[in-house]
Amino acid sequence: MQTLYHVTTLAALPAILEGGLDPARSQSSLDAVFLSGGVFTAASYACMRDGPHVMLSVDLSALDAALLGPDNYELPDLLEQIDPEALEELGYYEGVGWSEVSWKHSLAIADQVAYRGIIPPSALSIIDCEWIPAPEGICAAPAPM
Which of 70, 97, 129, 144 pairs with 77 at a CA distance of 20 to 30 A? Predict the structure, then answer.
């Protein structure tokens, strides 16, 4: 099972546990839920919102692969920094737009993907992440699921 990660505020957790991660509640310009391939990448986003945070693991096998897409936050900048030959090895050309990159390559390059659907509560788990060196409060200890 491949696992992705999402950080949210503790205040949002009850609604997420009831209805899942819903892109309609995202603060992004892209109607999507953003997921990271690693806990450190996910933890770095805690500073974008005030209050205590919690990290969720997401079971990738429970998601509809057709709704996965590239990240629009970090990926565009990273694509500009990649050597054109390395891009060609991935099957892309110099100047490729972020939206043309596959979700798998987005995960490999930026450690992030976008999911354009509701992630059901059954695909989520609260993880114990007190060991993560991240902004204070990221790993508030909610009641176990």
Answer: 129
